[in-house]
From TrEMBL:
<keyword id="KW-0520">NAD</keyword>
<dbReference type="Pfam" id="PF02826">
    <property type="entry name" value="2-Hacid_dh_C"/>
</dbReference>
<dbReference type="InterPro" id="IPR006140">
    <property type="entry name" value="D-isomer_DH_NAD-bd"/>
</dbReference>
<keyword id="KW-0560">Oxidoreductase</keyword>
<dbReference type="InterPro" id="IPR036291">
    <property type="entry name" value="NAD(P)-bd_dom_sf"/>
</dbReference>
<feature type="domain" description="D-isomer specific 2-hydroxyacid dehydrogenase NAD-binding">
    <location>
        <begin position="108"/>
        <end position="284"/>
    </location>
</feature>
<protein>
    <submittedName>
        <fullName>Glyoxylate/hydroxypyruvate reductase A</fullName>
    </submittedName>
</protein>
């Protein structure tokens, strides 16, 4: 029986999670787990596949026989900027578990701002009992920038709760049940938006797009008393000095951030101390290791049986 081509697993994840997941994955196939010190000197040249998330710097110099690359997350900007990246098919991680985790986070943040939890937490620390006026979800328009798999699922769930949801993407491609805007109607989109949700991939066009100028165009007359910014896309899409300035000036009433320009967020960042900000450490849609390995196995089976790979990245578009 011919041995299946090997796979390199070069994931900057928790070592025990990767080790446990690999016990039940890639049966009959050689696996080189680069988190295992025993593999430091392993021959990588015969491996046909590599699963990556912030891989070691020498990967592409040593793994010269690769045929397909797999991203360990939904985003691929961390792969596209790797030195020495070979011109090979690159597959994004798309899976219901990842999609659900992201939309849960987005819904949670929208509800927290709707129910004014930031203000209540601030009052609790000061031992202030002060019931606040409570708008309904139907009075709030959530504008989602980035209407791919993650944005579309978030939109469906937000609409089910009662929020008014509109979407924006560069193409303005239709999404069922959602009023969509394209590049030419960004101003109209922003003018309607009370809660702005960022789920954009990181491309040259989206780098720094969430900035002071954009925040100034959000709707200010909504029932929350000011717009809210929520970002779980990519840290490079936001300008944190502008977020801080907008919060301090009242241009933004609040923010929820899962991604940052520099990660981990430096201890010197003012965001740590701002009581108008809710933060999570890039965990809105953590990859489930078992689901990730199963996804890669399915794509390898397709590739080895002559079927086209799914979720291929368009290098020119950046996603």
């Amino acid at each position: 029986m011919t041995e299946k081509p090997a796979i390199i697993v070069d994931l900057n994840f928790h070592p025990e999670q990767v080790r446990e997941g690999l016990r039940h994955a890639f049966s009959g196939r050689g696996v080189i787990n680069r988190l295992d010190p025993a593999n430091d000197g392993a021959d990588l040249s015969k491996a046909a596949y590599a699963l990556l998330w912030k891989p070691k710097a020498d990967l592409f110099q040593r793994a010269t026989g690769l045929k397909v690359l797999f991203s360990g997350g939904a985003g691929v900007d961390h792969v596209l900027t790797l030195p020495g990246l070979p011109d090979l098919p690159l597959v994004r991680f798309v899976d219901p578990t990842l999609t659900t985790r992201m939309s849960e986070w987005v819904v949670m943040q929208c509800l927290m701002h709707l129910r004014q939890q930031v203000a209540y937490d601030r009052n609790r620390r000061k031992k202030i009992w002060n019931p606040l006026v409570q708008p309904e979800a139907s009075e709030i328009t959530v504008g989602i920038m980035g209407m791919g798999v993650l944005g579309s699922d978030s939109a469906r769930k937000l609409k089910a709760i009662g929020f008014n949801v509109i979407g924006w993407s560069k193409s303005g491609k239709p999404v069922d049940g959602v009023e969509m805007h394209g590049a030419e109607s960004l101003d109209a989109f922003l003018a309607k938006t009370d809660m702005l949700v960022g789920l954009l991939p990181l491309t040259p066009e989206t780098r720094g797009i969430f900035n002071g100028d954009l925040f100034s165009r959000l709707r200010r007359s909504g029932p929350l008393g000011g717009p809210v910014f929520i970002n779980a896309g990519r840290g490079g899409s936001q300008v944190e000095t502008d977020i801080i300035a907008a919060l301090n000036s009242g241009r933004l009433k609040g923010a929820s951030l899962d991604v940052f320009e520099t990660e981990p967020l430096p201890a010197t960042s003012p965001l740590w101390e701002m009581d108008t900000v809710m933060m999570t450490p890039h965990t809105a849609a953590d990859s489930d290791v078992s689901a990730l390995f199963a996804h890669v196995e399915r794509q390898i089976e397709r590739y080895e049986s002559g079927q086209p790979l799914q979720h291929l990245v368009e290098r020119g578009a950046g996603y």
